[in-house]
């Protein structure tokens, strides 16, 4: 190859690089496609990270009791809407000998009064499918 050709190639490379640097320094945008695209909204997506203080309750019966934590009155009202099977699945409700579900635990119902304010005498109650009381029905 002749020295003239090598010199011409070097000159053209320097000219092209100079034009690119000039366009970059002047802030010229060479991408015509990107000019029409504008940022409409920025969205931040955060992942769920486990926290030692907050635990996710996966059991429906535990979640039922957790939502009523600290409010026994609303718990009693919500327990009253449960069926026999659902009442026995929870750890905060009792199925009574009066055939209704009320707020309570292994020690018995939380509220043991009727609508007149008098104490209800219960023959037995169920807590998590276990019967408590002197008159528990015999299972055959």
The ordered string of helix (H) and strand (E) elements is HHHHHEEEEE
**Silhouette:** rod-shaped
Distance between the termini: 108 Å
Portion in helices = 25-40%
- Low-confidence residue ranges: none
Tally of DSSP helical segments:
5
* Secondary-structure content class: alpha+beta
Assembly form of the protein: single chain
Summarize model confidence as the mean pLDDT: 82
Total strand segments:
5
What's the alpha carbon Rg, rounded to whole Å?
Answer: 38 Å
Strand content: 5-15%
Largest sheet: 5 strands, antiparallel
The largest sheet has its strands arranged as 3-2-1-4-5
Q: What can you see in these coordinates?
A:
The chain has 140 residues and is an alpha+beta fold. The protein has a domain at 61-132. It is built from five helices and five strands. It has a five-stranded antiparallel beta sheet. A hairpin with a 2-residue loop joins strand 2 (101-105) and strand 3 (108-109). The protein is rod-shaped and about 115 Å long. The protein starts with a helix and ends in an 8-residue tail after the last strand.
SSE blueprint and pairings:
Elements: H1 3-26, H2 32-35, H3 60-67, H4 72-79, H5 84-89, E1 93-96, E2 101-105, E3 108-109, E4 125-127, E5 130-132
Antiparallel strand pairs: 1-2, 1-4, 2-3, 4-5
Comma- or semicolon-separated keywords:
36% helix, 5 strands, rod-shaped, five-stranded antiparallel beta sheet, single chain, 5 helices, alpha+beta, 140 residues
